[in-house]
């Protein structure tokens, strides 16, 4: 992170704190004992040491080094002092990833649990205004709140000294407005796989890819579980390539009502061309889910047996807003909700934290969540998706199955 080039950040106090952070990095590269390192850390107050500095070449932060030293005590001390957990090194790995690669469960859990709780509290305290971001590019550094608290492991965290690194994304991949104004291309590649791509500056980004087919197929199977399928009502938000909608339609007993909410004009044109507007019991609502979720078209149905959402360019805040509506959308005790879990899917630690966050929030809303892993490694390994698979680099995808606790 090149903070030296940002004059706003370079007050004398901050410069001194950065120097102290760099000194700690240096000490961590030397064969010093835990006590010697801890002594230096303890000699500084939280305002006097910047624990988010990174080594120029490797990109390692103090937390990376502590984990690499296999020193859970130091890892804990750094977390308590406000070290930033989601800094990625030059190879794209967080300190949590280093712990995973060393099979160091203790350090991994320390980082994961502490940060999970921090984000849970932040989400509640600030109406989800500040949230976890994958720091591919760091555009702003903010203080978040002032309270201190102890987490489940008894780690004391001072929120006032914790930095949230937030990536702004105004491209079609991160902004609904930009996405809805961008042109989409539907294509079939050489391997016969369907693609839906969006123009984003000089490149094309995958909106929906054929490799997600096994995820959609398994999701439909799970959503049908324990349901007698007679009079099966489905709500799906986001048509994309229509993969999941096709699986719903191909089920031995097709839905008695199949509502699809879709806002993008190019997708709607594609749906029209493929005959979706003429299918029996299919109702297409042209707009965003936010436009219809309170409408009679949705609430007047009297509840759905299956609700699914997989919309492009929305973040966790918007997904959480959808979670809040789930209880009123489901019809009864066998009704189920699911969503495409691609949150933090470029990194196992991010993915794990988002999984926990979703589960905790859904529990608060009176729901039980179970997870089913689908192997997407093969689809990745043969390389047929090339660069379009960038947004999901994990070898597995977790499918959530959500039921109301009735
Ligand atoms: C990843 S695709 C969905 C793929 C689909 N699950 C399938 O099986 O093919 C995302 C879709 O969500 C739509 N979308 C984006 N924002 C939306 C919103 N706010 N409400 C509903 N749909 C939205 C996009 O236009 C796109 O068609």
TrEMBL record:
- ANK repeat positions in this chain? 58-90
**InterPro entries from the entry?**
Ankyrin_rpt, Ankyrin_rpt-contain_sf, RMT2/GAMT_Mtase, RMT2_dom, SAM-dependent_MTases_sf
Concerning PROSITE patterns, the annotation shows:
ANK_REP_REGION, ANK_REPEAT, SAM_RMT2
What's a single GO MF annotation on this record?
Answer: protein arginine N5-methyltransferase activity
Locate the RMT2 domain: which residues?
A: 170-406
S-adenosyl-L-methionine recorded as keyword: yes
Q: Which GO terms describe its cellular component?
A: cytoplasm; nucleus
Give the matching Gene3D superfamilies. Ankyrin repeat-containing domain, Vaccinia Virus protein VP39
Q: Which UniProt keywords apply?
A: ANK repeat, Methyltransferase, S-adenosyl-L-methionine, Transferase
Q: Which GO terms describe its biological process?
A: methylation
Q: What superkingdom heads the lineage?
A: Eukaryota
Supply the name of the protein.
Related to RMT2-protein-arginine N-methyltransferase
